[in-house]
Specification:
Number of helices: 3
Number of strands: 13
Largest sheet: 4 strands, antiparallel
Number of domains: 1
Radius of gyration: 15 Å
Structural class: alpha+beta
Strand order of the largest sheet: 11-12-1-13
Distance between the termini: 15 Å
Helix content: 10-25%
Order of helices and strands: EEEEEEEHEEHEEEHE
Strand content: 35-45%
Length: 141
């Protein structure tokens, strides 16, 4: 039996509430994603209310491994005043929207109980990137 994990990424900012089409579904239904950075500790996968963004290098690796349960889309990245004060010279890499389309404990990426669930294969790939500020625990859902 495959192992699955609850994966809670770094929260480096927030999304604009007006982006929601239907906030009662999980993951929420969103038309256009705008992610505003308030800080960033350097992780390659970030979250805001079950919406995820990934660095370009992580996106390429996920695509290369053909992991299931995800699709990628563009994200508009915004920088808050707080971010500029904290990191006046920090340059952000390119980020992409990691849309969760899979079924938890079936696909490599899925959502259950308002949490991101990843397979052992997905976790092994993620561990090769900066996920220092993510919380990971075995899924018992």
């Amino acid at each position: 039996m495959d192992k699955y994990y609850i994966f809670e990424p770094e929260v480096a900012g927030n999304i604009t509430k007006s982006d929601f089409l239907d906030k009662d579904t999980m993951p929420p239904q969103i038309n256009t994603l705008r992610y505003t950075f308030d800080g960033w500790l350097g992780d390659d996968i970030l979250e805001s209310i079950l919406v995820f963004v990934v660095s370009e290098r992580l996106k390429k690796s996920i695509e290369k491994e053909n992991l299931t349960g995800i699709a990628f889309n563009d994200v508009e990245i915004l920088i808050s005043e707080q971010f500029n004060e904290l990191y006046p010279n920090k340059k952000l890499p390119e980020f992409y929207w990691l849309k969760i389309t899979g079924i938890a404990k079936k696909d490599d990426f899925g959502c259950a109980d308002k949490r991101l669930i990843v397979s052992q294969k997905a976790l092994s790939l993620l561990e090769g990137f900066n996920i220092e500020h993510a919380d990971v625990e075995e899924c018992k859902i």
